[in-house]
Amino acid sequence: MQTVAAAEFTTSDGARLRLIDEGPADAPVTAVFVHGWTLSKHTWDRVAAGLPAAAGRNVRTLRFDLRGHGGSAPAVAGEATIRRCADDLAELLAERVPEGPIVLAGHSMGGMTIMALAEQHPEIFDRVRGVALVATSSGNLAAPSFGLPKPGADVFNAGERLLRRYLAGAKGGKVSPASGWLRPGVRWLLFGKDPKSDDVAATASWLAGCHPVNMAGYRESLAVHERLDALERLRGIPTLIFAGGSDRLTPQDHAERIAEALPDARYYLYPGAGHMLPLERTDEITTRLAGLL
Q: What range(s) does the AB hydrolase-1 domain occupy (predicted)?
């Protein structure tokens, strides 16, 4: 049995992406995890750790930091996009998992990356045996409501656009050297009822470590993300859709839209949970994902 620790992958244009590749090299299936905007590969740590036992079989797990996130190199101007994330994922699969069945799990922008992968590299899905779309969306993200009345949402979105412009001109390599001051906002925006303080702290630290110019660029890409048609490539592939009932970023109507496009998919709604389902509902996500394996 071969277990591979943290490592790097270099893309065709020279970007270095940090990854964690664990489990037997000859495992019958590889689960590939993609994290969300401003987050980290570590979003999936607990799910990846519990998956082999939950599945009752050997499983290889692969997770990586998107450009400008975690330990990965930042994207150059114009490349902090969902499209580029999908190309990076395709290259990673070609080098690290060139053959054999795979299961794809994407959280938030990670789920959108899987949709873009289906749009840009549909041939890869010939060997995809399962897909998990977690707290994600197929589009309509230009001006989210954040669970607020329209006047409040309009004010929030206006402030977010100002912040985006500020970040686009930032000179540093991180949003902030400290993350403690981000925790109240992260708690309100990303979590549901009674989150663990350690989870909020970890999420705030991932946001603080995000490359600010890339953070702004990805937000622009999220605003124009419209990939409902790309879901057609997932038809016939066992697919799980997960949503949090208290998710402010991608509320349940986004999951319902995906479920309507994929009528054979299984849709799970967790009342009281927010956007961070891999942390808030780790056991449930792990168990359901193990069923795909």
A: 32-281
